[in-house]
Prior knowledge:
The protein is mainly β. It has a domain at about 40-105 and about 125-160 and about 185-230: Porin, CATH 2.40.160.20. Helix content is about 10%, strand content about 60%. An eight-stranded antiparallel β-barrel has the order 1-2-3-4-5-8-9-10. Strands 6-7 form a two-stranded antiparallel ribbon. The protein is elongated, with a radius of gyration of 37 Å.
Amino acid sequence: MKKLVLGLLGFGAMASFAFAGTETYGGKEMKQVVPPPCPEWYADNEFNVDLWGTYVFTGNDAHDDRYIEGDHAWGGGIDAKYFFHRYFGIGIEGWMVDARRRSLDFAEVDGGVDPEPIVATSRKDSRGLGAVLGTLTLRYPFHCSRFSPYIFGGGGAIFGGGERDTFFHSDSPDVLNDLHSGRETKAIGQVGGGLEIRITPHIGLINDFSWNFVDGPANNFGMVRSGINFAF
């Protein structure tokens, strides 16, 4: 009897070892699902071309500004940048605006008296004013997002402004003369920041603001830009 019991116990032990390494699952076999990677809207090495419209406004009153000589102007521009490793870009930009300058015209009025009275009339001269700058841009595209804030700075030359009219009396105090000096080219510095929103990986909308420095604080001005970016 003992041998029979021992034999049954040994058989049960061997059977349990035999089935220990076999796993069974009820129903269908389960598979691990890997989600697809999220889209990236900004490339590591990217060439950008921006087209934009702009609004310029002077930091001082129009009569105190010595370069634009007006309180505001409208225009447009273009810039090209190459981004290294997604975050850093160098480029060049150029823009033109229609800046209106207020000037005075003096004329004698025939009133039958001697000396004749002089009348001054005010008029606005429309003229083109523009700049060309080299730029450095730092951007931070949010991971898996269409949004990328950026800051930028640059320097270059601005041209088309700085006209002067100086009025003085000649030898006769009854004669008023106008000494006019022409347009000047000045150095310009620029700092600003903005936001780009990608519609596709190759087309984006840009909006930014910059502050520009021209030959002393009397000539500083702000610039608002809105436009479209093409990324290659």
